[in-house]
């Protein structure tokens, strides 16, 4: 999977930016170069969708042959989702949302997102805690210009994010693509966390705690983005549990 989002659309953590990126032997790349690299990994099956200059999503069902989990792409009502992994309780979730038994994980995530965006009183951390299994996904809501990313708490689906040459945020499970695209400005996306394009990063496992950025130092002794961990000493205001604004589509 690959998601690239314009810096005007996504308010990425400033700690992802490394001043060493433009001084390293590997320079960060522009969007079209990153997409070309991704497509070349599986030129017969990979495809992409662009949304003007704001966003780009690309998907390959076989980008990594050894990947044992589902690789899914779905779109519905101008909402698009790239999903990696599998949900053990998908049948139960589909029944809960009134979906057919054949609904896959990516389509379920879209429907849940749309339902909660439009009328659901549930906060994002509660919804994500109900997902049993290994997962990582990126949602792009083209109607509202919203990006939503989440990674399961078991850490089995590794996602990475970084900053491209033009300041865009790049998200992928392919570490080689991220390294080649973002030079020194990248980091693992923290497990058990979610990111909203307007409101930032938070832990859905520990929603009352703030996230703390810890500088990453690579083998050359150079700062390379940052790891984000839950700050056990901090406390954030809880998201309200009622009302149309208390959902994972508009949370903040």
UniProtKB/TrEMBL annotation:
Coiled coil: none annotated. Residues 2-230 form the DUF3700 domain. It holds the Pfam family DUF3700. InterPro entries: DUF3700 (IPR024286), Ntn_hydrolases_N (IPR029055), TSJT1-like (IPR044828). It comes from the Eukaryota. SUPFAM superfamilies: N-terminal nucleophile aminohydrolases (Ntn hydrolases). This is Stem-specific protein TSJT1-like. It comes from Abrus precatorius (Indian licorice). The gene is LOC113871803.
């Amino acid at each position: 999977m690959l998601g690239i989002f314009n810096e005007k659309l996504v308010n990425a953590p400033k700690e992802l930016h490394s001043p060493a990126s433009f001084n390293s032997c590997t320079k960060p790349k522009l969007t079209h170069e990153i997409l070309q690299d991704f497509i070349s990994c599986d030129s017969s099956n990979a495809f992409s969708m662009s949304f003007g200059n704001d966003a780009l999503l690309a998907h390959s069902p076989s980008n990594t042959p050894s990947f044992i989990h589902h690789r899914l792409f779905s779109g519905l009502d101008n909402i698009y989702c790239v999903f990696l992994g599998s949900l053990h309780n998908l049948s139960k979730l589909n029944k809960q949302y009134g979906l057919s038994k054949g609904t896959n994980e990516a389509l379920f995530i879209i429907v849940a997102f749309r339902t909660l965006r439009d009328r659901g009183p549930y906060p994002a951390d509660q919804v994500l805690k109900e997902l049993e299994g290994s997962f990582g996904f990126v949602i792009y809501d083209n109607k509202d210009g919203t990006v939503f990313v989440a990674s399961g708490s078991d850490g089995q689906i590794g996602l990475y994010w970084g900053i491209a040459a033009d300041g865009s945020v790049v998200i992928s499970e392919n570490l080689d693509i991220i390294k080649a695209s973002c030079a020194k400005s990248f980091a693992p996306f923290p497990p058990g966390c979610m990111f909203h394009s307007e409101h930032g990063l938070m832990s859905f496992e520990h929603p009352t705690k703030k996230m703390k950025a810890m500088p990453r130092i690579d083998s050359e002794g150079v700062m390379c983005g940052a790891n984000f961990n839950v700050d056990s000493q901090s406390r954030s205001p809880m998201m309200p549990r009622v009302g149309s604004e208390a959902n994972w589509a508009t949370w903040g």
